[in-house]
Design brief:
37% of the residues are buried. By secondary structure, this protein is of the alpha/beta class. α4 (157-170) packs parallel to α5 (187-199). It folds into two domains: 1-32, no CATH class; 42-216, Isochorismatase-like (Rossmann fold, 3-Layer(aba) Sandwich), CATH 3.40.50. Strands 2, 3, 4, 5, 6, 7 and 8 form a seven-stranded parallel beta sheet that branches. It contains five helices and nine strands, in the order αββαββαβαββαββ.
């Protein structure tokens, strides 16, 4: 009886190990080509309180000189193409009294930001890497104005937009991401970021994925 029980137990262990082995045999790299693209996320409307909302325009530097930043016709033409809609949003935000904050990357300065959406003299500018909260006073700027919601635009979608918006969400802020205001060098990056904002733990519950035409003040 004991021998039979031992054999049955050993068989169960071997079967379990086999199932686990089969389940873990293929990595995402091996399965890459068979991954099914998920359905496009729904874009939702966003009606915002202008007094507690900030518009972040991230790393739109380089339009005049490609050496001065990522938003240029050489490496990110999609950023250049987004400028008319970004400008329309910027004009509407200014009219409504929304707080405006810019960022730059690298060694770029105020004059390197795309002239179509150039900052006014009173607009603050922070300079940092992909997360604009890191080693800048962005958090203080927003706190001092009583900001509860940020509209995050810019390039790259998988860089400044993803990291800065996620940081804001983790700090408890409401985040609005217009898909026609973020850009990258290729569509896959933009697609992934759109998916991330609607699925990632800690980020998706605080984020509204939208488009400029759906934002009202």
């Amino acid at each position: 009886m004991r021998a039979t029980s031992f054999i049955a137990g050993a068989a169960a262990i071997l079967l379990s190990a086999s199932v686990v082995s089969q389940a873990s045999a293929a990595t995402i790299i091996e399965e890459w080509g068979s991954v099914k693209v998920p359905a496009a996320p729904e874009l939702k409307p966003a009606t915002l309180d202008a007094k507690t909302t900030a518009l972040l325009l991230l790393d739109f530097n380089g339009a005049q000189d490609p050496k001065k930043g990522p938003c240029n016709t050489d490496s990110k033409p999609r950023c250049i193409a987004s400028l008319p809609k970004v400008k329309a949003m910027l004009d509407a935000a200014r009219k409504a009294g929304v707080y405006i904050v810019y960022s730059t990357s690298g060694t770029a300065g105020r004059d390197d930001i795309a002239t179509a959406i150039a900052p006014e003299a009173s607009d603050p500018i922070v300079t940092s890497g992909p997360d604009k909260f890191v080693k800048t006073d962005l958090q203080k700027l927003l706190d001092d104005k009583g900001i509860k919601t940020v509209i995050v635009t810019g390039t790259a979608s998988e860089g400044a937009v993803l990291n800065t918006a996620s940081h804001a969400a983790f700090q408890g802020m409401n985040v609005v991401v217009p898909i026609d205001g973020m850009s990258s060098t290729d569509l896959y990056a933009e697609q992934y970021v759109a998916w991330h904002f609607t699925h990632a733990p800690g980020v998706s519950p605080k984020t509204t994925l939208t488009e400029f035409s759906k934002i009202k003040f």
